[in-house]
Amino acid sequence: MPARPTSVHIPQPCAESWAAMTPRGPGRHCAACQKTVVDFTQKTDAEILAVLQHAAGRTCGRFAAGQLGRPLRPLAVGAPSRWQAWLAAAVAVWGLREGAGAAARAQVPVEQGPRPVERKVGQAAAAVAPTAVVLHGVVLDSATRQGLPGVTVLLKSTLIGISTGDDGRFALEVPTEQLKAAGRKVVISFVGYISQEIILETVGNAAQMQIVMRPSHADLDGLIVINRKPWPWHPRRFYYWLTRPFRRG
Questions:
Q1: What residue segments make up the domains of the chain, in order of their start?
Q2: What does the mean pLDDT of the chain come to?
Q3: How far is CA 56 from CA 10, 59, 203, in A?
Q4: Pairing relation of β-strands 6-7 and 209-213?
Q5: Has domain 132-218 been given CATH number 2.60.40.1120?
Q6: pLDDT by residue (tens digit) across 80-115?
Q7: DSSP symbols for 55-93
């Protein structure tokens, strides 16, 4: 009997801001309900079902709009196809045939002992080089030391980029050929802050980049419009005043 589908509904969303919560474990701590809110936005349906089944009682979570109001799909283990079943049967029959033929033949004495292993000097297993490298980092405000959300992290002169999350963290996937290019830079920009350029060669094998941005007052300047009271110019009144002597007769 198939299991009933499970869907997530939030009739009364929490009014507490996600950015105001304190990071804790797999999510953030909500001061309003004194619970840890799990971030489900990057999890699959199977992972969400596993967390909900493992949790005891009610669970607070942060979901994306596309994860609500629809049946969650568990990780289904598909049955073997017909050609896989035929292949397994053929291998079993072939193994029985080979075993019977070997028993019918005369036994040949086998020399016991370790067999020499041939090794070719100068030939090593070719390691598969990764096609991309993921750069992890966090962007902080110079005054508050808090993470800045929505900061653009872009590989200069390319369309490869990403924006920071609510906590200011990012994970930029850079192709290896771009990473090896001499003088390749990453541009970090945000409205109201001074943009920065970081040379990838200086990053090295750092586990996580930390970028501190300072506010830019020049970016806040703009066009100032002064609203003045218009002159009381009324052409119709002037016309009646000008033609008044002629209208008396």
A1: 10-70, 132-218
A2: 73
A3: 18, 8, 44
A4: unpaired
A5: yes
A6: 555 565 565 555 545 545 554 544 444 444 444 455
A7: S-S---EE--GGGSSSEEPP---PPPPHHHHHHHHHHHH
